[in-house]
Structures are given as C-alpha cells and as structure tokens.
Amino acid sequence: MISAPEVVELVLAEAARLGGADETIVLVTERSTTALRWAGNSMTTNGDSFGRDTTVVSIRRSGDEAFVGSVQSSEVDPTAITALVAASQRAAASAPAARDAAPPLAATTVPPDWDGPIPTTGADVFGSVATSLARGFSGTDTLYGFARHELDTTFVATSNGLRRRYTQPTGTVEINAKRDGASAWAGVSSPDFVDVPTDSMLADLSTRLDWARRPIELPAGRYETLMPPSTVADIMIYLTWSMDGRGAQEGRTALSAPGGTRVGERLTDLGLNLYSDPGASGLECAPFVTATSSSERSSVFDNGMDVGRVDWIRDGAVNALAYPRAAAAEFDVPVTVAADNLLMTGGDASLADMVAATERGLLLTTLWYIREVDPTVLLLTGLTRDGVYLIEDGEVTGEVNNFRFNESPLDLLRRASQAGVSEVTLPREWGDWATRAAMPSLRIPDFHMSSVSQAR
C-alpha cells in the first residue's frame, strides 16, 4: 500500500493527464481503529483495523459557473486511481451548475510533516479501562458496552498547490449496567484514553440502579427537569446542525425571520455562549475545512480553508449562522464555517447542587431516537432511556417510567432557568458523529413529556 502523499500526487497527475477537469481536489484519510466490547460481565471481542478513504473532487468551470463531480473509494490498490479520477471527471461532466461555486483557494506551503509517519493506535490504549472493567465484572451489576479509539490522518491537496494535513484522535467509552430489570448508561469521550474515569462511571451507574429499586409511575405532562450535559449536548448539536445561513435567509428554518434571520435575537438571560473552536483544549479538531461533498453548512470549494472559533450564540443571543464562501458572498455576510466540536458555557453549580435545590422534578440521564417534527420551529421528538428519576425535597427518591418528549432547542434555551458547570461530555444519540462536546446541565421549569413510553 503506497503512502497517502503518494496517492495525492498520483491522483493529481492522473487528473492532469485525463484533462477532464479544470481543478482537482483530493482528500485522503488514513484510519487506524481499535475497539473493545464486553457483554454479560465478560470481554467478547476486540481488534484493530486500518483503512483508507480517497475522495477525488473534479471541478469544471465555464464563465462564472462551476460543475462538480465527487467520488469516494476505500480501495488501496494504486491501480484503481485511474478509474477513480475518471469517474469523478465523468460526474463533473454531467453535473448541474454548483450553487456553492467559489474561486480556487491559494496555494500553501507544504506542511513540514506532510511526508512524516502516520500515527496508529492499538488495543493497549484500553489498559486502564480494561483493568477497571475486570473489577466491575465481579460486582452485582451486569455490564455491557464498548470502547473505541480512532486516529484519522487527513491530507487535503489541490491542483492549485494547496496542501494541508491533520491527525484527529477520537475515543469513546460507553457502559450499560443492568440489575433486576433496570438499566443505566454512562459514556465519556477521550482523545487519548489518559485518565478515563471508568471506576467513577461504574460507581455512578450503581447509584442509579439503587435509585431504580423504587419504581414510580407518572403520567405525561410538563415537569421541572434537570438535563445533564450529555442530554444538553444531544439537543444543542441538533440546533447547530440547523443553523445554516442560506436556509434561514430563504425562510426555510427556525432561524428565519421576516425579511432576514434571527441573528441578534435574545434567547436567554443566562448569558450562555454556544461556540465551536478547533483549538478548544481537550476537544481539538481540524483547523481547516475537509468536505467530501457540499451541504448548506460546508462546501467542497472551501477544502483547506482555515476554520476558527465561531460564537453561534453569544451572551444568550443568536450571533452567527453558517455561511460557506459562496453563500457569504451572495448574502454579503462574513464567511462562517463550523469546527468539528461544540461547547457551551455555564454557571457555577454542579449537577448535585442542582438536584439538592429541586423541590420536585425529574432528572434525565440520556435521550434517544431524536427526530425533527417541525423544522419551522425546530420541534424535536424523542425518547428518554436508561433512567429517568424523581427528585423530591432535594433527593432522588426513585425511578419513573420513560416518556416521549416534544421540545425545541430554541424554546428550551428561552425557558431555561439555571445552567450548571460546563463539562466535557459524550452525547448519547449523536456520539457516533459528534464526539467532541462540552456542555452545562440545564434546569427547565416545564419540560414537555408528551406521552408515556413503554420502552425499557
């Protein structure tokens, strides 16, 4: 298997030889993955894998119009490059004009590590996690779950001379504990598996299963509810996925307003900031665009463009929407592209403090199967899962039944009455796509549990 930089140069040379494109962009991602699984208090499977994805983006230009063909392959045989490039150029030849067309980006200097070794991972990264789990397997709870660590090294290059490289570490641990028909979930993200708090995760799960010894049936309705960071992450991630500028400008989203957008509208007096930042400590991610296809939030024409911090909500007000270069030019606004993480500031109270200050309410742990119901108000529906608990006079007194909920992230921010300490967290629903997050707990005075769910 030839190296990724060699693949880049072969693709660009083949694109020039075939001559079916005015510009070529190539993205090569080398992926090293290791995984560990357990079930019924026993390790079941583990293994390492290596792979490569190569995407060729061919661009034909005619006056102010551009036509794009993007084709991806996981083939590692260099003899397949000719067919891949040809397929991309054929796709560009038959494509309609691209709405996100933008001028080519300028050439860059070659990164000093361009030809350097590509880092890999292996099962030894799970050493401390496996040791803690082994102790947990001898306990009273039955444990299920998995851990994953991945190193993705991405190379971006263009026929215009742009060259970028970045290695993205991604790691997660998810544990599900069961006892007497009750279930609880905990998850964390970690880029390097240093100091993963497996023991405290197991202790927290055991506490929740203790709470579940007293089952309580509650009807649907509106309840004061504490949302821990993981649940807040799931809701806020969906909000930012919906914050595209074009959709808002064209009146198609919940961020639309008569004659424009809701930028500047205040959502909360809690002074919260919701932002993405490639340099956020512990949640670092690629500081440039890596787009294998275009969407309303990113564009293949922007591949390799610098990405910085964006405050989507600043001091409680909508501050920015996502605009790739073409949309920014069309609507005469700054270029704004999201980094692959999401953070929200919070307050000073811990979740335990917030529980102690609750006279009567619900404590969520995770959300599940979140789907959009009405994009015009960003109304979401979903299920609670693996533990909803009743709080009475500052203490958790039992586990209640699961619910289906109907809520909008915008409305939750409008009604939130308290934000706790912001901490790194793993979203349960979107953790496969959005691993890097830091969120506070939120107190919602009237969270809408729309119906009782029979799910266990």
From TrEMBL:
It comes from the Bacteria. Residues 221-450 form the Metalloprotease TldD/E C-terminal domain. GO terms for biological process: proteolysis. InterPro entries: Metalloprtase-TldD/E_C (IPR045569), TldD/PmbA_N (IPR035068), TldD/PmbA_sf (IPR036059). GO terms for molecular function: metallopeptidase activity. Gene3D superfamilies: PmbA/TldD superfamily. This is Peptidase. It comes from Mycolicibacterium sediminis.
